[in-house]
Design goal:
GO terms for molecular function: proton-transporting ATP synthase activity, rotational mechanism; proton-transporting ATPase activity, rotational mechanism. The protein has one domain. Helix 2 runs antiparallel to helix 3. By secondary structure, the protein is an all-alpha fold. The chain is built from three helices and no strands. It is about 90% helix and about 0% strand.
């Protein structure tokens, strides 16, 4: 009997299947594919968990950013209110200072007027006393000087 190439190919195929069955290649291939499928499932689950975690972190960062923006607006508003209060306080102090200085100036002017009036009166009294002294001296040329001194003192007392 002559064996042709087809026969040997069949024998080779049968031996290949026997060898594959003997080495349990289908179960090992299945196990390898199952392990790979499980590893892919685990990676997908981990990727999903990371995605959820990143979404939570993004939401947290956005919340913090909104809070920081709100806080920054509050700080700016507080600073503006404080600046306005400082400006008002400075304006009030300036107005008070001007009012005090005006009052002091008015008091100095009133004092200067009072001093001027007192000086004018004093000068007027001195002039009146000198005039009275001359008049009395002229009338009382040879007389008593005691009456003259008493009259001068009386004029001074009445004018001051």
């Amino acid at each position: 009997m002559a064996f042709d190439n087809s026969f040997w190919a069949l024998i080779g195929l049968i031996l290949f299947f026997v060898l594959v069955a003997y080495l349990k290649a289908p179960s090992k291939l299945t196990q390898t594919l199952d392990r790979r499928a499980q590893r892919i499932r685990n990676e997908l689950a981990e990727a999903q968990a990371l995605k959820e975690e990143s979404k939570r972190q993004l939401a947290e960062y956005q919340r913090r950013r909104r809070e920081a923006e709100t806080e920054a607006r509050d700080i700016v508003a507080a600073a503006q209110r404080e600046a306005a209060a400082l400006v008002d306080e400075a304006r009030q102090k300036s107005e008070d200072y001007v009012a005090r200085r005006t009052q002091i100036a008015e008091q100095k002017i009133a004092q200067a007027e009072a001093d001027a009036i007192a000086e004018v009166r004093s000068t007027a009294v001195d002039i009146a006393v000198n005039a009275a002294t001359r008049i009395i001296a002229e009338r009382n040329v040879g007389g008593d000087t005691r009456l003259l001194d008493q009259s001068i003192e009386d004029v001074r007392r009445r004018l001051n």
